[in-house]
Amino acid sequence: MNSFMSTRLLIFMVLLRPFFVFSQPSGFDKYNVVWNSQSSNSGESMPAGGGDIGLNVWVEKGDILFYLAKSGTFDENNNFLKLGRVRIRCNPNPFNGIRFKQVLVLRNGYITISGSNDGIEANAMIWVDVYRPVVHFDIKTSKPVIAEIYFENWRYADHLMHGAESFATSLKWAPFENLVTKKDSVAFHNGGVLFFHRNTDPTVFDITVHQQFLDSVKSQLFNPLKNLTFGGFMQGQNLIPANIFSGKYLDTDFMAWQLISKKPAKEYHLEIILHSQNALTLDNWKEGLQRNISNNKLHGKNAFAKTVEWWHNYWNRSYIII
User: Fold this and answer.
1) Max Cα-Cα span within the chain
2) With contact defined as beta carbons under 8 Å apart, do 257 and 150 qualify?
3) Burial class of residue 108 (count of CB atoms within 10 Å of its CB; 0-12, 13-18, 19+)
4) Exposed (0-12), middle (13-18) or buried (19+): which is 279, by Cβ within 10 Å?
5) By C-alpha distance, which of 195, 198, 183 is closest to 151?
6) DSSP H stretches of helix in the chain
7) Which pLDDT tens digit goes with each residue over 220-261?
8) Which residue of 65, 146, 190, 237 is 20 to 30 Å from 165, comparing CA positions?
9) Where are the alpha helices (DSSP H) in 101-198?
């Protein structure tokens, strides 16, 4: 091969290389997870998330539901707690008809839900901002509907653990009596729902230090559970506080704080802003949450595009096609 042809071949290979390295494979969307029927219960949920936030999303009897989880949300017993459950219901309900579809869109990192019933078409999307601790839910309908949003909490009172429940904590098989999961705080606030769990003494850290005869150096040890406070604020456009209900999901009682439409609309946007902090006082934690709320207002306009871009870059870094 002469030098001229070698040079042309080298240039051709260099020009081709970026397309092989940085482009996603054709047919990538065929790997999306697609459901054409609703779930029987939370055991048939679909995962979604971003940053350190994870969701379990499913549709059951026409209601859209998801659990909220965030890294580091450990209670006094070092039990890793979910922050709560959100239920979204429309009236009239477009998800009670024959046509239904739920898709985990891998390329973009979000879940879409579509349905139609009695002449009403609906398309919903659930996604998490990868740069800020914010969960977003958007829905558009072909005709105005009333939206009912519920924040459901099963830790509305102290709960005495029974049997194997203690295995979820760091105490495991330790023979402690009257082991309690302490209650959360939930209330309507500023047109939305404020919810949090704040650790109080004693914690499993205090018990462990005493068991290991380390009380004399306790002040020198780091206690990750002390004053740990985690939770968030749920709010939405055209939504106002309404009622508080009691209910039961599967075998667990819960309380639900309801936001409802001011008036029927074709479009709704729900935001859940989360915050976790070892806060000296509860006011300190609330100040941190307010900073997250303000930051979301300031930078939220470009959040969706930047989140989708992050997922594109994520999939572009590496993939195996089967």
Assistant:
1) 85
2) yes
3) buried
4) buried
5) 195
6) 3-22, 204-211, 282-299, 303-317
7) 999 999 999 999 999 999 999 999 999 999 999 999 999 999
8) 65
9) none
